[in-house]
Amino acid sequence: DSGVTQTPKHLITATGQRVTLRCSPRSGDLSVYWYQQSLDQGLQFLIHYYNGEERAKGNILERFSAQQFPDLHSELNLSSLELGDSALYFCASSVATVGATNEKLFFGSGTQLSVL
Amino acid sequence: SQQGEEDPQALSIQEGENATMNCSYKTSINNLQWYRQNSGRGLVHLILIRSNEREKHSGRLRVTLDTSKKSSSLLITASRAADTASYFCATETPSGNTPLVFGKGTRLSVIA
């Protein structure tokens, strides 16, 4: 058990809908990362939050947004869903402070999103 | 964009044999990390090698790093059926606080 909790584990929804994925990082970890894993694209970085602030953005669509709350949990919101958004969404956390290097990530079990 | 590219994409070996996976990357790095993913589960960190290190060991794992060739290899010795998983390399670039960039992984099957 990595200590990172993601809910729900599975989500089935229809095109055009909006969903929210939730992540609780390991106790004490200030950084939260979101990744999307699909068969054709591999593991793609979406966004990074540190202590409530957005720190880096990757290949995140404008239809997607995220935030990190004062209690450090994070939510990834996906809207106007398309078939191609079906993927495994991972949250990871680390103790990394700003400018830190050589940090390893602890991954949650992921949320499997199926858009029908 | 993918920084690391693992090779081969898939590998099937018998239990007890050694498994070697390779990773090539494109830009300079602070470190390179290897992760394992069991089917449909989260990734688990295996080992981190810094850019000034050439080799590192952890149990049955041996990682090498050649920064001149921008490549790394992961060797799993005396493989077990439980080693069946996908293995990913991930690189951290010198810019502070940048996210890890993962390759597409090598699927290892260890046959008992």
Structure, described:
- The complex is a heterodimer of chains A (116) and B (112).
- Helix content of chain A is 0%, strand content 52%.
- Chain A is mostly beta strands.
- In chain A, strands 2, 4, 5, 6, 9, 10 and 11 form a seven-stranded mixed sheet that branches. In chain A, strands 1-3-8-7 form a four-stranded antiparallel sheet, with no helix packed on it.
- Chain B is built from no helices and eleven strands.
- In chain B, strands 2, 4, 5, 9, 10 and 11 form a six-stranded mixed sheet that branches. Chain B has a five-stranded antiparallel sheet with strand order 1-3-8-7-6, with no helix packed on it.
- Chain B has strands at residues 5-7, 10-14, 19-24, 31-37, 43-50, 55-58, 61-66, 71-76, 85-92, 101-102, 106-111.
- The model of chain B has no long low-confidence stretch (mean pLDDT 92).
- The termini of chain B are far apart.
- With 112 residues, chain B is mainly beta.
- The interface between A and B is medium-sized, with 30 and 25 residues.
Task: Explain the layout of strands and helices.
The complex is a heterodimer of chains A (116) and B (112).
Chain A: E1 5-7, E2 10-13, E3 19-24, E4 31-38, E5 42-50, E6 53-57, E7 64-68, E8 74-78, E9 87-94, E10 106-107, E11 111-115
Parallel strand pairs in A: 2-11
Antiparallel strand pairs in A: 1-3, 3-8, 4-5, 4-9, 5-6, 7-8, 9-10, 9-11
Chain B: E1 5-7, E2 10-14, E3 19-24, E4 31-37, E5 43-50, E6 55-58, E7 61-66, E8 71-76, E9 85-92, E10 101-102, E11 106-111
Parallel strand pairs in B: 2-11
Antiparallel strand pairs in B: 1-3, 3-8, 4-5, 4-9, 6-7, 7-8, 9-10, 9-11
